Amino acid sequence: MNFRISLLPHQILYLNILVLGFLSFLGLNLFNPSILFEALLFVTFFIYLSTIQKDVLWIPIVSLTYVTLSLIYAVIIEKNHILDFFLIFKSFVYLVIISQFVGKNSLTPEYVRKIYLVVLGLFFLKYLFLVLQGTARQSIRVFDESNFELMMLSCLFLLDYRNRRELNYLEIMLLLITFFLSGSRSGLVIIVFLIGALFLKNLNKRNFFILLLFAPIGIGMIYFIFLTRSEGDTLESIDRYIFFMSFLKEVKDWTFFDFLVGSERITALSPETCGKLNYYEKLLSFRNDGTCYSVILHSFIIRVIFDHGLIGFSFLCLSVYHLVRKSGTDRFISFLILMILILNSLSVSAFNSVYAMLGVSLFLTSKNPEIIVKNDK
């Protein structure tokens, strides 16, 4: 193996996937995968710490300034719990870390292909095994909740496509089945959207007929998952509806300016909302006093609007898009990467998830074959 220090993070990632995947099959939860993957991001940050591209420097500067000033006010002055603070500001901390990765180009297309196929095969086999066992949907996972980990697989699929510019119909079928087996509504919407967009981008006579076949299958899968997940439930009993209505109640007195900048750093939800949602014990404040923050509302979009406003959400979206573009990825694929995060944020944590940031980081550290070819001419 050609060992270089710049390749170390990718080799650790590959090893993590293999070891954690094997332990997952054995039902051994010896480590918390999310913590290990977050540690990998920090290790990668320090390995690549030497230089940062000037045209992305504004992203970590703005993010770090915002986090630092907010930390002084919310934690030092207002005495809020520091872990509650970092949970709310995690996405901005991630931006500081991954901005360092742009232009490092240490990950080859061949290595991406290997990681992608291993992850796809691992997810398919584990999900199939669990479904055949009759496992509850919430427990169908390899590393973490399927809503989170499927973002990483979606990014790998898109990165492999960017490198090869080829749609493998067998792999696409396997992807669809894998996402369907997961039972994840957001995951299935994401992969159907990605596949549909790529077929439309590469539309020819053959792809047109395949798209005619794929469209009803993909939409049918989404309909089936939504139907089975909400079977017997009224609208008022669906969790995402409850979260959204709770959010509307919290912001009912907001002005237009409030929606732009969000609530005061950091603001707890009302006791009434916390009491209604207190069955999500793990999402209550680290102060253990019954207080809760926006994280209990699950959907990242309403969380980020409450905490950071539309300006904060726009900054996150613009930053991720800009970083991916500066890594040598075209506008179309960069837009699709952003859409993975936005679609996921309708349901869960998106920008706040280590699996999303791992997926984006793979783009930032990968060699783009198209750029290599141009440079060789």
Q: Note the total helix count.
A: 16
**SSE order, one letter for each helix or strand:** HHHHHHHHHHHHHHHH
Shape field: globular
Q: Gap between N and C termini, in Å?
A: 29 Å
Structural class: mainly alpha
Radius of gyration: 21 Å
Describe the structure.
This is O-antigen ligase domain-containing protein. With 377 residues, the chain is an all-alpha fold. The chain is 68% helix and 0% strand. Residues 372-377 have low confidence and may be disordered. The chain has one domain (5-24, 31-234, 305-367). It contains 16 helices and no strands.
Write a concise keyword list for the protein shown above.
377 residues, mainly alpha, 16 helices, globular, disordered C terminus
Briefly summarize what is shown.
Helices cover 68% and strands 0% of the residues. It is mostly helical and 377 residues long. Helix 6 runs parallel beside helix 15.
Write the layout of secondary structure elements.
Layout lengths: L7 H19 L6 H15 L10 H20 L4 H17 L10 H24 L13 H19 L4 H14 L2 H17 L3 H25 L9 H12 L5 H6 L9 H6 L23 H27 L4 H15 L8 H11 L4 H8 L1
Helix pairs in contact: 1-2, 1-5, 3-4, 4-13, 5-6, 5-7, 6-8, 6-14, 6-15, 7-8, 8-9, 8-14, 13-14
